[in-house]
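Final report, Chapter 2: Outcomes

The project's central promise was a pipeline that accepts a single protein chain and returns its three-dimensional structure in a standardized token representation, suitable for archiving and comparison. That pipeline is now operational. To close this chapter, we reproduce one record exactly as it appears in the project archive, with the input sequence first and the structure output second.
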Amino acid sequence: MTGKRSGALLLLALLSGCSTLSGWFGSGKTGKEPARLAEFKESAKFEVRWHRNLGDAGNNALQPAVMRDAVYAANARGEVFRLERATGKQVWQADSGFAITGGVGAGEGLLLAGSLKGDLAAFEEDGKLRWKTKVSSEVLSAPQVINGIVIVRTGDGRIAGLSAIDGSRQWVYERATPALIVRSHAGVTIENGTAYAGFAGGKLAAIGPANGTTVWEATVSLPRGNTELERISDITSLPAADAEQVCAVSFQGRVACFGMAQGSLLWSRDISSDKGLAMQGNYLYVTDASGGLSALDKGSGSSLWKNDQLFMRETTAPLVLGNHVVAGDYEGYLHALNREDGSMAARVRTDSSGIAAAPVKLDDGLLVQTRDGSLYSIAIH
């Protein structure tokens, strides 16, 4: 078991008055062995279009970002890169001046990255630094941009809205947190002009990006159990949203979907996940806490299929890509499942360092960044 596996250690640390569970709940904490990969008849094939080594991502769930004709990515040393979208050729490299733990966010002509100490840097598309600022705590997720406001989430449970022009603070959204929480790389999801974020204690909030006001707040799950560990019910992944509804899933809790306008509960059911979900058409795809992948009916929550072949392999949140659902694992494999029945369709290995963050869509394919810093552009046929 290596130090780079996301589920390698269970640590208790004091952070802003709260005890925080650091790391993920993988095989190292249950004593259960990860499933061995079984042979199967491929019905599709992965094709590596290009790959480039950018430098170690460390224990951070760094993801690339796509904007117009370019791909942007970063490494833990603090370097930010612009690459050609079609070839992966480096266009420029910039230095943030700090170790990057959250990034890269991209939008409205800005590239954004944050640090463990609350540093936040914004770069222009040509690599020039526009501004630097400090936020209240560690930045573990990629900041987002909407209508001239940079939205950044910090490890103390706050979400801040900053001016995209100069980084000045416009608003702060915060809520009370339980005594014991899971350290999370979850940021915010922006859909239809609203920011959606899940919180410790199983709460989901819709936030107005212009001023940080609460549009609505809903309960995904309630803490259950006799001990503080048993009562952890945190949302540690991004909500999934479309034009009609928004869904979220909590660890040791439930998955629930809500109406977009009022936050009214549409349905909920017991599923535990610390990795996340994806929505496409009439379906919701969830990576559960044991690494299994499930498909649910978006309208009712009823089960369509479940695949447990990636049990305890620290499976990432899913990406829906055409007729397939794609996820990575701790050994650096990408797996493609058939969207209709959940059967294994294709598999490819990147490097052996592992994939911590969900793949990112790129045209008719995807981008994935490994812990050792290799960035791959991959298609599936």
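Archive annotation: DSSP finds one helix and 35 strands in the chain.
This record, like all others produced under the grant, will remain available to the consortium after the project formally closes.
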